[in-house]
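Sanity check

After download, print the first record. It should look like this:
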Amino acid sequence: MRHDRQSVKRIDLAEMQLASSETARIINRDIVLELVRANQPISRADLARLSGLGRSTISQIVEQLIGENWVREGAMGSLPRGRRPTMVGLNEDLLALAVDIHPKQASVALVDLNGRLLSRSLTPLTSDPADSIRIIIDCMQRMQRTTPRKSIEGIGISLPGRVNPATQRMIFAPNLKWPEFDIKKMVQAKMGLPVMMENDATACLLAELTFARMDGVQNAVLVAVAEGVGTCVLANGQLLSGHNGMAGEFGHILVDPNGPRCGCGQNGCWELFSSSRAALRYFRELRPKGPAIGFRDLLNLAEEGDAAAAQALATQAMWIGRGLRMIIASVSPSTILIAGDLTSAWHRFGPVIEKEVADLTLAGSSPVIRPSHEGEIARLRGAAALVFQRGARRASSARTTASATMTA
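Expected structure tokens:
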């Protein structure tokens, strides 16, 4: 008898939880919430049609979401005949404070439930984490005072490093170079709001999954290119965390033992050849007497016809493409997303990266390579998504607890 191995899944009985009617209600609630997000404004009848759930079930779920403040009713819809339906959409007065930290500066933004940035501010950072977090907190407090009539659900922080999921402490950030410090504890104490932290590449992919269209994509990798190179892996529809939250550190895989020294302490890591800093190094080697510039200046120079700038970017693109081979060989994604300032010059990077990937693919078709054009905004939206997902889980959990108490 022939068995389809793809349909067979090993079950760990020690970790298995029996499904209950409440579990099904929570799953249905989350499905309906995402359908509202993707199709708003939408009627209850259309939600029933799209979800396959009964109209009475949809009505109960919508009333639950309204009671939890995630959804609100709006305008009346129009029909050729019969009663006009009341449309529902996400509650735009529900906000998150989002923070994106880089080695020299941080971005702080107010983001609504639709992923829109309502306000944004840049703040400088120092080598001292406590001083830097105080600067960020001051910025958040000023921003908080501008929205007294809206509800801020929590704070999400995107970091250029890895966060231990169990302790919610940053454990690996070679480019940030901060000593051990409990960021979450200080921010929660000063702001009085729940705080969620995550790696910047994970935040970018979370923004794509939450606010963009990735329907049907179950296996993807997002590569965030900035001062370093971070990656996040989506495998079989699940974000991989790994032991201590360290899954997906492809940027620190050795590609040349004779390469430059990396902030992680090793020589020749992939990010030393494919990051924005690498492109600036290539430019200085070609133009040693040129002025000190930033990566966006390098992009502008290339567009103005500077041959050295164009060559530096082409070398960076080549190394990004070559490094993707180890990602493709290890996790075999159907889609690879590239995030960062370089996507504004995708006409330079895209063809080079795609050629390298096609030349190095071991078998079968190459993954789809596409840019995430939002760059830093994607990290801010991803940080906000951390908050909204946590809030949704907390609301469901509270309802489950209350239901169990009433039953008892």
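If your output differs, re-run the checksum step. Summary of this record's structure: The chain has a mean pLDDT of 85.
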